[in-house]
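Good morning C.,

I know you're traveling, so I'll keep this short. The sequence:
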Amino acid sequence: MRITADVRMGNKSKAAKGSLELRKKEIKTSTKDIKEVYLIVYTAQNKNGAKYKINADNLQVFTKFVAEGKATIRFKEPAQDIFVSTKDVVQLKAFLVAMRSVLSNFHVTLGSMGAAPASHVVKKTRVTMTPKDCGDEAFMALDVTLESLNAVGLELKLFKPRIFKLRNLVTLDLSDNHIKDIPDGVAKLVSLKEMKLSKNRIKDLTSVAMHTLPKSLVLLDLSDNGLKVIPPNITKLNRLATLRLDGNALERLPFSLGKLSDLRMFSASRNKLHSLPGSLVASRSKLEEIDVSGNPFHPPDQQSGKILLDNLVFPSLRDLVFGVCRKHGIRLSPEEVPGALISLMDAGLPCVCGRICYSALAVAFASVPLSSIARTVVSDVSVVVTESVMCSKGCLDKYSNNPFAF
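The tokens, ready to paste straight into the viewer:
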């Protein structure tokens, strides 16, 4: 077990970045096997590590200020005071508990002396956990500066609390586990760009759960979870470039999916989709790749032109104001207008012509060539039915039953 901290050796030296590690040494003789445990302190001045034998007669630990992330470890032979300071109080406490467990002869899984790398001062930025080393102690030992964590196929039932402390984490892969929910703590991962949760058991993804996902995400993989619904507020993840929803039980996709303007790769193969949201066309920002193979899409010749909603009335004053604000790039703030009005303005849906619609609109099935949605297409069909928003009768006549209009 190892922690990274500010380390000061004795009263005369200055504190410096270093790490402390517990390691075992096994000595086999003809009569008995002897197991010794050592504390090894690595610093920039001593990259090979200073070794101190741990036993009840040789060790004292002072924890009066442990709640502030500070502790003193005193050895009698060789005589040495080691002052430890870290912002990660939880990790420090776990390390001290492990030391006490060694003194009490409780079993603690430790690496052998010969397995130590040349330098422990350099922090690991990537960690891949294995089924043999995925207990609570292993998670507690994760450094808060970690940037990439791979914990695939470990039968985890939930996010380990330690993960929420990894504020520098950029990539998190928890694929092939037994996770059922996305907890609120995920919102603390403000640097996270890639989250892979495929092959878990997340069957219900609520709007609240989607709201907790970091807006910094550029890749989200929720494949093979049995999901039935994707909440509309997925569009809040406006930096998403890759979205994978393969192998779920989705019958529809969010109407506003096309508002993810940075989206470049989208896959929803092996679902139960009968149509695609027309906003994927209306966004006018072509995807690099789309994979919608293995879905029972409606035959275009049977559904195209069918009107699902007809509310092509004269726009309300509110809708006209929203339109003017969008046209001239006027951004409203909560200090100027109620927040509910801003939410309504943001909820506008794009017509296939590009104009934003509010309450005055029509929704109709329109046949669209997949080649007009993405440059690279993986699908069993070349033309799909889309549920498209139309801003006027002119658009309704032009697009609803004419795939060549796109």
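Safe travels,
E.
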